Amino acid sequence: MNAFRVSTLLFLIVLAVATPALADLRVVTTTTDLAELVRAIGGDRVRVEAICQGHQDPHHVQARPSYMVTVSRADLVVAVGLELEVGWLPALLQGARNPRVNPGNLGYLESADAIEPIEVPAGAIDRSQGDLHPLGNPHYWLDPENAKAAAMLIAARMAELDPDSAAYYQENLQRFVDRIDRAMNRWQEAMAPYAGTRIVSYHRTFNYFFDQFGLVGSGYVEDRPGIPPSPAHLARLIRMMTQQDIPVIFHESFYDRSTSDMVSSRTNARVLVLPTSVGGAEAATGYEELIDVIVDSFTQAMGER
Ligand SMILES: [Zn+2]
Question: Cys staple from 208: which of 1, 100, 143, 220, with CB 3.0 to 4.6 Å?
């Protein structure tokens, strides 16, 4: 090897050490659904971790120290917003001591900014009532149109944080939007025969899904969001469900099902235990699969009536 080659080789080695490989964007999301969106947009240029798992109630997550470590290394934190995570995310952000991802900075994003919330309370909010939805219903991700809107907002922020990958993120976003549009045709076709069907759910988790697919959320097993039912509330609910012949109770997989089962036993309604996030059921392996599970469970139950 001549001197020129050795020096070239040395130069290349120095270059390889001095220039780190294109660094991945490190993203932490509060939920698995948001992680799916980030993954779809970021492909192999992001590392993403979700804090709340699909089988957990996103209103109530324990702010573990290990999550703080994860957040301390993040370039971007993506939250659902509308105070869904108000019981645990502020403690994680504080413990993480990573100002980049604090609210108000480029590294913090609430995807609720992309959507139009429903059930926004009018007038003063009385938290002593235990209302979990003070800024409106935060469970918007079960409407695929909202998932698309959230993905667009997330992609724009990722491009701001990582301009070199902006075109790549945009391409992936378009691919995700196309995928959802195609799936939307299939979901709408499957749901069309049941337009106007009145449904009861345990919590108000599915109301955006109902709105999108023509169902009507007519009652809730819990009294108010986060408040367990009183006997009087259940008696009223059972009477209403019998009068209106409500066919199914949408029951979120992480809630104890005994009350929903009791209501079911006194009415003609069948309990459908459903995932509300990616990973909340074995088949809910991705965003489209999550919607598939809900659509399939419902249409199958209706078909069997
Ligand atoms: Zn809720």
Answer: 143
Q: How far is the CA of 240 from the centre of ligand 1 (A)?
A: 23
Least confident interval from 11-20, 112-121, 163-172 = 11-20
- Ligand 1 centroid to Cα of residue 1, in Å, is 69
Q: What is the pLDDT of residues 239-275, one digit of tens each?
A: 999 999 999 999 999 999 999 999 999 999 999 999 9
How far, in Å, from the CA of 136 to the mean position of ligand 1? 9
Quick one: three-class SS letters along the chain? CCHHHHHHHHHHHHHHHHCCCCCCEEEEECCHHHHHHHHHHHHHHEEEEECCCCCCCCCCCCCCHHHHHHHHCCCEEEECCCCCCCCCHHHHHHHHCCHHHCCCCCCEEEHHHHCCCCCCCCCCCCHHHCCCCECECCCHHHCHHHHHHHHHHHHHHHHHHCHHHHHHHHHHHHHHHHHHHHHHHHHHHHHHHHCCCEEEECCCCCHHHHHHHCCEEEEECCCECCECCCHHHHHHHHHHHHHHCCCEEEEECCCCCHHHHHHHHCCCCEEEEECCCCCCCCCCCCHHHHHHHHHHHHHHHHHCC
Q: Ligand 1 center to residue 161 CA distance, Å?
A: 30
* Domains, the chain, ordered by start: 25-184 (3.40.50.1980), 187-303 (3.40.50.1980)
CA of 290 to the centre of ligand 1 (A): 18
Residues with CB under 5 A from ligand 1 (ion): 132
- Confidence (pTM): 0.91
